[in-house]
Specification:
Elements lengths: L2 H12 L3 E6 L6 H11 L11 E6 L5 E4 L5 E4 L11 E4 L6 H6 L4 H7 L7 E4 L4 H6 L7 E2 L6 H7 L4 E2 L5 E3 L3 E4 L4 H14 L1 H11 L26 H8 L8 H7 L4 H12 L3 H19 L4 H8 L4 H12 L3 H8 L9
Parallel strand pairs: 1-2, 1-5, 5-6, 6-10, 7-8
Antiparallel strand pairs: 3-4, 9-10
Helix pairs in contact: 2-7, 7-8, 9-10, 10-11, 12-13, 12-14, 12-15
Length: 342
Amino acid sequence: MDSATGTAASSTARFRPHRVVVLALDGLLPFELGIPHRIFGRPKDAAGRLLYEVVTCSVRPPGPVRTDADFSIVVPHGPGTLATADTVIVPASYEVGPLYEEGVLPEDLAAALAHIRPGTRLASICTGVYVLAAAGYLDGRPATTHWADAERFQRLFPRIDVDADVLFIDDGDVLTSAGVAAGIDLCLHMVRRDHGTAVANDVARRTVVPPHRDGGQAQYIHRPLPDPQLATTTAARAWALGRLHEPIQLRDMAEQEAMSVRTFTRRFREEAGISPGQWLTQQRVERARHLLESTDLSVDQVAEHAGFGTAQSMRQHLQAALGVTPTAYRRTFRVAGAGRSA
């Protein structure tokens, strides 16, 4: 054997794909379970070798695991497989009662997690973060989860710095993602971190998803107004909503309720939870979102109709509120076939 052949053989012998072990818990969401297999099952190196090996295990010996759908899946590996992982991913599950109610790991889940070797990279999708939190992996660290669950999660685990505005958080060896599709963002991010942008972008193209989504969860949340039957500043809000394109002063809103500015501001905060100025900005952001989604108005025209005055002002406010520019927001949410609005 010549030296060149020997070197090639040695290189082949040393190659080992990064092993991703997905922990399947009873009540899991099939979509979320499939995300790691889809994203990590695609990347290859220049020689055509798969860069990742993805396997699924449960907390029990091999066998069926219930899903939240009308079918179960057969998982071929038991908890000991976690000891072979380079990365462990925990998708969400809806059937781990004590975990969600008290923040305590069930015995079988705790025993399974004990197989994970120190230094293994850990990741969660959506409420799979409860597993990592209850196991103590997130104490004193930042984390995220689905925006609708963030407050409850923070109350249950006060030692964790919860950020409900982002799609995912990379804290080195522990990564967490927001709800459902944010798991795709997280897995693509890990591929990008491991093997670079070109590899991650190729996976995204093959999966027909954006290689990177701008912004965070804030752009997907609609915040309702207080119940008009219980409010005493309803008329002022209705008046302002009809004039968002005009300059609106606090005293103008107070006059609609025949209140002093001080009394109006106090009542408004009691009812809306924010100041009148903050509320006006929120409504203008909502108006801009609607116009960007449903019309062909230019960014300058949208800024004028929403009451921001200038495109630069609107960009700053949308960036602060949603984490994206007007153009990026329109690209993501533009309604197909929307007509031009006057």
